[in-house]
């Protein structure tokens, strides 16, 4: 495949004090070829884990702001994951928590990584996200809306770039600052640059930021790979860019095992690169641990399901089935554990433990 934005040099245009445009050349590394990606991946064991947010946080801001950064809950709940052999977590960041307190934000990232590492868990960090609420503010976050899936989750940057012409420059500083701090940190296995670009009916409107964040990442040149997961087949321009610019291939699939396998056979395995399934497992859609996880292990695809502990995100409720009376759904949509560490389905945690630990 032809590669986008992978030239050995990228020219940024700036304006000097006289008003004259001057060219500044910044080295931009190439996309990893399949050979390099597979050589890197061959050194890793097969990993399974979850998209993680502590049960006490409704969104990324509540997780990362100083006043609500909850190390006790993070430690306890990562312990639940480690107890069933999970060894990787995917964790969302948010630029506003950094913008409010850059050094404190990075220090909290480091504390999170130390806790995860103590449980022998690697981390996939996510920068941008087109899902759910498009406005947000720093400080105390809203309470969950009863029975509604992800009622308080927020996009990043959402509508910010429409409202603030200087936002792109600020987002570049954010991405580069975080990547520079952690570019050689072996507790991080992957940088997921943009979650579900084009969601919320944005479509190709998300393409400029997607291109920018890959360029910013390559300018920093972390030792970890860069990726952004494909998630909907009709977003052809976005998918093409993501597949051609990701060092390793990541994707989301909430379909049943037959359709999931069709995705693998029709295009994902054909990339010849390591695969990270960074979201799956929606029980009422027949994407389950018993059907999907063995298939992912067979192909040595990193398996990251949505949701670890039932909490303020309300992701035990389905996307399109609100239960405003707050009653327990007949079948949990996502999540594995109750807050006290009791499994939702003991047969599921037994299967995960068997596949991850051979027990």
TrEMBL record:
<dbReference type="GO" id="GO:0004553">
    <property type="term" value="F:hydrolase activity, hydrolyzing O-glycosyl compounds"/>
</dbReference>
<feature type="compositionally biased region" description="Polar residues">
    <location>
        <begin position="1"/>
        <end position="10"/>
    </location>
</feature>
<dbReference type="InterPro" id="IPR017853">
    <property type="entry name" value="GH"/>
</dbReference>
<dbReference type="Pfam" id="PF00150">
    <property type="entry name" value="Cellulase"/>
</dbReference>
<keyword id="KW-0326">Glycosidase</keyword>
<dbReference type="GO" id="GO:0000272">
    <property type="term" value="P:polysaccharide catabolic process"/>
</dbReference>
<protein>
    <submittedName>
        <fullName>Cellulase family glycosylhydrolase</fullName>
    </submittedName>
</protein>
<dbReference type="InterPro" id="IPR001547">
    <property type="entry name" value="Glyco_hydro_5"/>
</dbReference>
<feature type="compositionally biased region" description="Low complexity">
    <location>
        <begin position="11"/>
        <end position="21"/>
    </location>
</feature>
<feature type="domain" description="Glycoside hydrolase family 5">
    <location>
        <begin position="148"/>
        <end position="308"/>
    </location>
</feature>
<keyword id="KW-0378">Hydrolase</keyword>
<comment type="similarity">
    <text>Belongs to the glycosyl hydrolase 5 (cellulase A) family.</text>
</comment>
<feature type="region of interest" description="Disordered">
    <location>
        <begin position="1"/>
        <end position="21"/>
    </location>
</feature>
């Amino acid at each position: 495949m032809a590669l986008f934005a992978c030239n050995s040099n990228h020219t940024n245009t700036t304006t000097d004090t006289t008003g004259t445009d001057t060219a500044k050349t910044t080295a931009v590394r190439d996309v990893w070829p399949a050979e390099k990606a597979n050589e890197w991946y061959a050194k890793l064991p097969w990993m399974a884990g979850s998209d993680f947010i502590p049960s006490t946080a409704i969104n990324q801001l509540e997780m990362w702001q100083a006043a609500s950064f909850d190390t006790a809950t993070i430690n306890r709940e990562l312990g639940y994951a480690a107890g069933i052999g999970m060894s990787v977590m995917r964790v969302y960041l948010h630029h506003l928590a950094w913008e409010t307190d850059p050094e404190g934000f990075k220090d909290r990232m480091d504390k999170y990584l130390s806790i995860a590492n103590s449980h022998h868990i690697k981390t996939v960090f996510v920068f941008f996200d087109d899902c759910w609420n498009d406005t947000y503010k720093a400080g105390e976050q809203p309470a969950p809306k009863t029975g509604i899936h992800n009622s308080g989750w927020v996009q990043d940057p959402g509508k910010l770039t429409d409202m603030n012409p200087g936002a792109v420059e600020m987002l570049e500083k954010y991405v580069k600052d975080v990547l520079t701090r952690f570019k050689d940190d072996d507790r991080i296995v992957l940088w997921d640059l943009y979650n579900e670009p084009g969601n919320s009916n944005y479509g190709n409107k998300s393409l400029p930021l997607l291109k920018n964040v890959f360029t910013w990442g390559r300018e920093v040149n972390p030792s970890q790979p860069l990726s952004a997961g494909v998630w909907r087949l009709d977003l052809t321009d976005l998918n093409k860019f993501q597949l051609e610019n990701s060092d390793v291939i990541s994707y989301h699939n909430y379909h049943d095992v037959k359709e999931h396998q069709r995705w693998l056979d029709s295009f994902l395995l054909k990339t010849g690169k390591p695969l990270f399934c960074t979201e799956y497992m929606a029980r009422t859609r027949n994407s389950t641990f018993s059907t999907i996880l063995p298939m992912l292990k067979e192909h040595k695809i990193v398996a990251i399901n949505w949701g670890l502990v039932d909490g303020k995100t309300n992701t035990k409720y389905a996307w399109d089935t609100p239960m405003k009376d707050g009653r327990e759904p007949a079948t949990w949509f996502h999540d594995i554990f109750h807050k006290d560490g009791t499994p939702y389905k003991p047969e599921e945690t037994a299967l995960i433990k068997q596949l991850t630990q051979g027990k």
